Amino acid sequence: MSWKDFHHLDDESLLEYYHSTRSPNAFRQLYARYKDSLYRYCTQMNLTGADSVLEALWSSLLESPPQLHGRRLRSWLFIRTNSLLRNYAGQDPDSSQPAPMQDNKLLAGIQQLPRIERNILLLHMECELPLATVADIEKLSLKKCRELYHQGKERLEEIIHGSHRRPWRIEEVEEVTI
Amino acid sequence: MSVWERQYRDAVASITSPVTLDDKILLQARQFKPVRSDNRWLSKAASSCAAIAVLVLLMHPAQYLGALTPGLQSTNGAQQHPLRNWQHKPSQPAQGIDPWFELRSQVNAGSYIELCNQWRQQQRGSIREKLPRDLESKARAHCRLLP
Fold first, then answer.
1. Is residue A102 domain-resident?
2. Domain containing A44 — which CATH number?
3. A126–B33 CB contact, under 8 Å
4. Any idea what the Cα angle at residue A83 is, between residues A113 and A66, rounded to 5°?
5. Which domain holds residue A117?
6. Cβ separation of B22 and A59 shorter than 8 Å?
7. Model pLDDT for residues B67-85, shown as the tens digit of each residue
């Protein structure tokens, strides 16, 4: 099967094909689909440990490709990455603090969010996971997860644009005479 | 997609996986050798054998046994092409086998004299062999009025 033939396969079929054939081209295609998204998520959660976490993630996938049992590969990848990031932060306490990204105001604002809000925001926005899956990852109820997501967005807007203060406004009422 | 999400997409568009990391992981992937399936070799061997068999069958001289080029055909007709006139011609009815052939031919030609002679002899009982049915019926039809 050539490089172009993999384009029509979805992630799960591609993983199954790689699992059965160990074709380097199949893995390259799979890697190309997720490498940037995973890297963005990792660097925003833990810049110093991103490379190590990603290496560990892909080497575990290469050594024993996961049995998905009908689940989506995207979910498996980000759940596994999240778990590795937590373990990495536990092993290396110095790296738990995210490195600041000062180039962009929005990205720098995301770095100022609390870890749980940042994680929920990134998993939903960057990794395109549904909030229900994100709630499972964070071991929260869906309601609480949704609240934290909106809270994170509001906090981020506050960091970027400042607090929502409304100036006093005097409304002039004109009497209409008929 | 909201304005805020679009701003985020624009901001992270420049953040991509570094080439060194990609190379490292892809190098690691190359260490796992692809699974070689025996079926592929088997199918290759089978198709090769089939191709050789077809070639042999096409090139084998037995394909052309009895085939002569037009220039080599003999002109005296002694050696005729074996495929010429390959259809069997419908064989003519054998005259010797049917004892009533001549009589039937005469009847078919419109001459009933001999038929009526034989018919009368049969009526008198002076003939051993009886006329066949078709000739008998024709004799009844045509010889009744004859003396």
1. yes
2. 1.20.140.160
3. no
4. 140
5. 34-161
6. no
7. 666 555 555 555 556 666 6
